Amino acid sequence: MKASETVDVLVVGGGIVGLASARALSLTNPNLKIALYEKESDVAAHQTGHNSGVIHAGLYYKPGSSKARLCARGRALLVAYCEEHNIPFEICGKLVLATDRSEVSRLEELRQRGLANGLSDIHLLTEEAIAEYEPEARGVAALYVPETGIVDYGEVARHYARDIEARGVTIARGERVVAIGFRKDGRRRVEATTRVAEAKCVVLCGGLLADRLAKLAGIKTDVTVVPFRGEYYELVESRRGLVKNLIYPVPDPSFPFLGVHFTRMVSGGVEAGPNAVLALAREGYRWRDVSLRDSLGTLAFPGFWRLARKHMRMGAYEVWRSLSKAAFTRSMQRLVPNITNRDTFRAGAGVRAQAMRPDGSLVDDFAFEAGEGVLAVLNAPSPAATASLAIGEVIRDQVLKIGAFS
Ligand SMILES: Cc1cc2nc3c(=O)[nH]c(=O)nc-3n(C[C@H](O)[C@H](O)[C@H](O)COP(=O)(O)OP(=O)(O)OC[C@H]3O[C@@H](n4cnc5c(N)ncnc54)[C@H](O)[C@@H]3O)c2cc1C
Question: Whole-model pTM?
């Protein structure tokens, strides 16, 4: 017999988005009875605990998009939150490095975009000026973005969790949601591993499983999550001095990811990555993690094949770079030529939830879909960790309407 409970709002998913949503709701309306179900034994087990740890400034996003707006607001809220809760973070700035002349016009486009997104202090650097910021980096020009920072999002999420538990939100760990139905009175009935909840509103923040949760709740969507693993190397301690802060390449506009970059971490190490290979399991962090259901799901999805045909060469190269340390090192050497194979060791990996449509197009912006008594987050890729507190506010406002909570 499963334990049953009645709540106003049930949040599914204890990543940074689910936790921030529960936090915003409990802050605005302390009388709401809120529970959060997370299938793993602790929060932040997936994307939130496996990312680059960058507080994004908001350089890349289309002006006016949710990503641009929520990144700017979320960054300000996050910095204030870290200050208030003594969470280590640093606004250390980053360089976007053009390594050949063909990339310089893209840098200028990025500068314009950054200005449109309110980053008034960004500026272009000449080849000579790069050394003042990153002595070991080599490029023909660079864009300096002083507003970028670093933080450990796993730690931020665990703080959110403590925060909301102290405010009376129940976090049930080890509870996998397996069914979402209706009751006769219009409430939603959510069945998990050992519990059943009846809720006026259910918020689905499932990250890599977002599309499956939405379908479980009866939301009609053609969005499918395709998982892309991003692997990292770390610099050995004696060579950490090769990178002072963050060094990024100029992103390829036809590709959804930012490219292998260097990130100094708040814990002191320096990482290089992530690459982007198709993951054979949605929550699989190594080549040997294979899920038949996930792999067949991707292969049966027409959008994946359309994307694969378009990026065939890039895809093959990514697989090669994942298997060959020498190939990965060459990507690092484009930015910092003095790095050698001996200077790095394999570190962790993360899996990105890339939401796609059947025509092969990528869902670029944050995406939410409301249904009867339910709100589903369908797409919350980077910079969703930076933007988490602002995304939480958006979700809170929608949930207050859906549940008709005052
Ligand atoms: C490699 C990589 C690098 C990144 N770098 C950055 C960066 O530098 N800066 C930045 O801002 N963003 C970055 N991101 C993006 C950021 O990490 C994500 O956007 C963010 O963590 C998404 O949070 P989430 O809560 O939506 O998902 P997740 O953290 O994946 O959480 C979803 C949760 O839902 C749970 N869940 C799923 N299904 C169920 C179920 N049926 N029942 C119960 N629980 C369930 C999962 O167990 C999981 O804990 C990066 C992402 C990756 C992968």
Answer: 0.97
